[in-house]
Design brief:
This protein is of the alpha/beta class and about 350 residues long. It folds into 3 domains: about 35-145, Tetrapyrrole methylase, N-terminal domain (Cobalt-precorrin-4 Transmethylase, domain 1, 3-Layer(aba) Sandwich), CATH 3.40.1010; about 145-250, Tetrapyrrole methylase, C-terminal domain (Methyltransferase, Cobalt-precorrin-4 Transmethylase, Domain 2), CATH 3.30.950.10; about 265-330. It is built from 12 helices and 10 strands. The strands form 2 sheets. It has a 5-stranded parallel beta sheet, sandwiched between helices. The protein has a 5-stranded mixed beta sheet with strand order 6-7-10-8-9, with helices on both faces. Helix 7 (about 195-205) packs antiparallel against helix 8, helix 9 runs antiparallel to helix 10 (about 280-290) and helix 10 packs across helix 11. The longest helix has 13 residues, at about 90-105. The chain is elongated, with a radius of gyration of 26 Å. About 35% of the residues are buried.
Length: about 350
């Protein structure tokens, strides 16, 4: 899909940019030394501020995640400045290089592939080191995918938590969701399109019928925001399959009566889980689903598994510890019995 090309923005001395204090004009003088954190479009190339364009044109160099991505945006806006790759794989080596250039009096612009740098994006260590070195850092606000999705979602905006990407593995993802369950705020998550159906299924399992929104292709031609309770969204994408494009999930806060699971609820879930899982795995599963501390849930699972009489869970010929040893060996490919 081609990017929308914005109308030409004047860079003459008469163009108002707000690059200095308050609203002013584009200066022909050298840009102030320091790091300039510049937000760039998340989809529509026209979504960039006048101040951002002026800063990018006057920077001594532009540090970016992917030089190919940034070069395309610079070409659209007629900007020709040196590009320096700065990403998580070379950050340790490049940080001293960028700091050295700023110490020498250069103005370095920092951009991400899309949106506001440092938001689910490398860069905070560079800012931290510059502060520690007493060097100037400037931020130029602009596009942000989490905030764009939030304001489109129709969900509460007075309190929200951006939690980035959930883990890709199912068990780790459910644990992370369990940790977020009790947060009394709207949740904002990034997710890959391919993992979206599985993630929504886990969210529906652990967070119940909370209202949510799936926002994709934000600011682009095929922008879509699908709203509904988590179980409905999970059912839709289970049938339709992964969507195309980049996805942001927005999930409403817990209802007032959505309190912590009771001890009876935990016992019921553990009894069900122990019928099919080892003690360790059952405890991990229930801890993720309830948000309870894993160590406490594991201790309770041991009690239930060891309980005598008709309430005993699992195979009476095995102890809970032998069940766990068997599960661990099976996971390593060791088929020996105890």
């Amino acid at each position: 899909m081609s990017q929308n090309v914005p109308p030409k923005v004047s860079t003459s001395a008469e163009a108002s940019t707000g690059a200095g204090e308050g609203s002013g004009t584009v200066a022909s003088s050298k840009l102030a030394a320091g790091l300039h954190i510049v937000a760039t479009p998340i989809g529509n190339a026209a979504d960039i501020t006048l101040r951002a364009l002026d800063t990018l044109r006057r920077a001594d160099a532009i540090a970016c995640e992917d030089t190919r991505v940034t070069a395309k945006l610079m070409a659209i806006h007629g900007i020709d400045r040196p590009l320096l790759a700065y990403h998580e794989h070379n950050a340790q080596r490049m940080r001293p290089v960028l700091i050295g250039r700023i110490q020498a009096g250069e103005a370095v612009a920092l951009v991400s592939d899309a949106g506001t740098p440092l938001v689910s994006d490398p860069g905070y260590k560079l800012v931290r080191d510059l502060h520690e070195a007493g060097l100037p850092v400037h931020a130029l606000p602009g596009p942000s995918a989490p905030l764009t999705a939030l304001v489109l979602s129709g969900l509460p905006t007075d309190r929200f938590l951006f939690a980035g990407f959930l883990p890709s593995k199912g068990a780790a993802r459910r644990t992370a969701i369990g940790e977020l369950k009790g947060v009394g705020a709207t949740l904002i998550l990034f997710e890959s399109a391919q993992r979206l159906p599985d993630t929504l299924a886990d969210l529906a399992l652990l967070l119940g019928g909370r209202e949510a929104a799936v926002a994709r292709e934000l600011t682009k031609l095929y922008e879509e925001v699908r709203r509904g309770p988590l179980p409905e969204l999970a059912a839709h994408y289970a049938g339709a399959g992964p969507p195309r494009g980049e996805v942001v999930l927005v999930i409403g806060p817990p209802a007032a009566d959505e309190g912590e699971a009771s001890a009876e609820d935990v016992d019921g879930l553990l009894r069900e889980a122990l019928e099919r899982l080892s003690v360790r795995d059952a405890a991990a599963d229930v801890a993720a689903r309830t948000g309870r501390p894993r160590r406490a849930v594991y201790a309770r699972a041991l009690e239930l598994a060891r309980s005598p009489g008709p309430d005993r869970i699992g195979n009476p010929a095995e102890t809970p510890l032998s069940q766990d040893r068997r599960a661990r060996r099976k996971g390593r490919g060791d088929g020996r019995d105890d």
